Amino acid sequence: MKLLVAALESELSAFPAEVPGYDRLVTGPGKIKAAYALTRALDNGDYEEVLVVGTAGAIDPDIAPGIHVVDTVFQYDVIDDNGVAGHHVSMPQRLSLGGGDVIIATGDSFVDDADTVRAIRALGGRLVDMEAYVYTWVAEQFDVPIRIWKAVSDTAQDGANQTWEATVAACSRDLWARLEAELDA
Predict the structure, then answer these.
(1) Is 105 within 8 Å of 128 (Cβ atoms)?
(2) Which of 18, 77, 173, 174 is the most exposed place for a label (fewest CB within 10 A)?
(3) pLDDT per residue as tens digits for the range 50-86
(4) Alpha-carbon distance 139 to 124, whole Å?
């Protein structure tokens, strides 16, 4: 059995209630809720893989719309004891999933301003979300393989929150179509 994970129910709005071969988990938004819910699920279940689906803001103007497979994750909203942004005092700076096409920066705030985008881009982020790093770290603690698919919902600039609300349903349809194609293959 695999575990299908999303932060918000709206990111799964196009998915059927039952997906063959998958249990379903909605964690809630942000790093703490993501860590708690995924830890509980992996502690109580025996999963061969975690597949995370959801939305992300594109902070690199060269990022194409559509679905991207996450290769590397990092936290943009941490600072180590030397004052270095993007470095946690006790957790790995970056985690690699491998095989993806994009680096995603995770933080506990919805990014919707140009100054924050510039700061995250300086750290190497191309997409931004609120959970990917934590999902990856938790899955590693349980030695469960993880894949993360993110549909671009906005450009993480001024007004991104309104853009996200308008596009989340379309992103969910695209993510379901991708998983459905994989299931049919």
Answers:
(1) yes
(2) 18
(3) 999 999 989 998 998 899 999 999 999 888 888 877 7
(4) 23
